[in-house]
Amino acid sequence: MVEISSRLGSKAQVMLHGGHVVSWRNPAGTEQLYMSPRAVFEPGKAIRGGVPIIFPQFGPGPLPTHGFARMREWKLVASSDNSDSTVSITLALESSPETLDLWPHNFRAALSITLGESLSCELTVTNTGTMPLTFQCAFHSYFPVSLIAQARIHGLEQLPYLNNLRGRMLEDGTPAPLMIDQEIDRVYPNVPNPTLLEDLITYTQVEISKQGLADVVIWNPWVEKSKSLKDLEPDGYLRFVCIETGAIATPLLVTAGGSTTCGQRLRVLRC
Ligand code: TA6
User: Fold this and answer.
1) CA pair distance 133, 127, nearest whole angstrom
2) What is the mean pLDDT of the chain?
3) What does the pLDDT look like over 101-120, one tens digit per residue?
4) Which residues contact 83 (CB under 8 A, 6 or more apart)?
5) What's the pLDDT score for residue 112?
6) Residue 52 near residue 70, CB atoms below 8 Å
């Protein structure tokens, strides 16, 4: 685990396992990310909470669900104390015989995490092979809410979405900010604006903005799915929502020898 703290007083904890941000606290020490009390921290397992790194596949498919990056050991390769009072670390994950068995591409992934007033994550994927490659990726962020029914998500109004609960059917958006009263699992393609999560009990607002990523995913497992997740309390769905930024509907292409960079920034507007 790497712990970083900025001169502004904010702190973050990042596991080398999965390149996984597991904690982000503001200067007052308030935790801004949700971590399941039943999260498992074991080799080969994904951590239920924080900011899982989804790469090179989103969701089910030929690879393990959500790819392998969140279950592999990343290496700390750089750290810096920046002139703008932020601190940064860079973790790296490279292709290996194990990953090549799963996904026949040579690559190097670098994850830069910058902490200041906000928390930024930037993923650079370099194609170290001789053939072009495409990948999906996402920052699968878990955000705490006082009570799911009192959370409101702005920025997705009127936007169509792929409903994962109905065979990824494309459905029309709604004019009102999104509130959650049932299981939800949606990919909103090509979202133009930042997404804002508002807690109507604490009036906290978190802004989720993205660069080089077109899509936003909203997920809450609700009652039945929560019961099926061993690393989540049965009523855990009441206390978090996943707002994820990613390249899902349209995978990213990297030519041989080329690189592509994408990222997200989390900013607490009011707490
Ligand atoms: O982000 C939405 C989603 O793809 C859901 O379908 C649900 O499976 C969630 O991710 C969590 O996946 P995980 O493999 O971490 O349990």
Assistant:
1) 7
2) 97
3) 999 999 999 999 999 999 99
4) none
5) 98
6) yes
Token duo for residue 152: 């409101």
* Residues 260, 249 contacting (CB under 8 angstroms): no
**Ligand 1 site residues, Cβ closer than 6 angstroms:** 46, 59, 65-66, 140, 164, 185, 217, 219, 242, 244
Mean pLDDT of 7-26: 97
Ligand 1 centroid to Cα of residue 28, in Å, is 31
Q: Which atom of ligand 1 is nearest to the CA of 164?
A: 6
Q: How confident is the model at residue 198 (pLDDT cuts 50, 70, 90)?
A: very high
Ligand 1 center to 84 CA (angstroms) = 36
Of 144, 29, 249, nearest in space to 12 by CA: 29
| Nearest Cα residue to atom 9 of ligand 1 | 219
Closest ligand 1 atom, residue 140 Cα: 1
Record the tokens describing residue 97, joined without a space.
């015989």
205-211/259-270 β-pairing: antiparallel
Q: Is 140 a catalytic residue?
A: yes
Q: Is the pLDDT of residue 270 over 90?
A: no
Compute the distance from residue 262 Cα to the ligand 1 centre, in Å.
Answer: 21
pLDDT band at residue 13 under the 50/70/90 scheme: very high
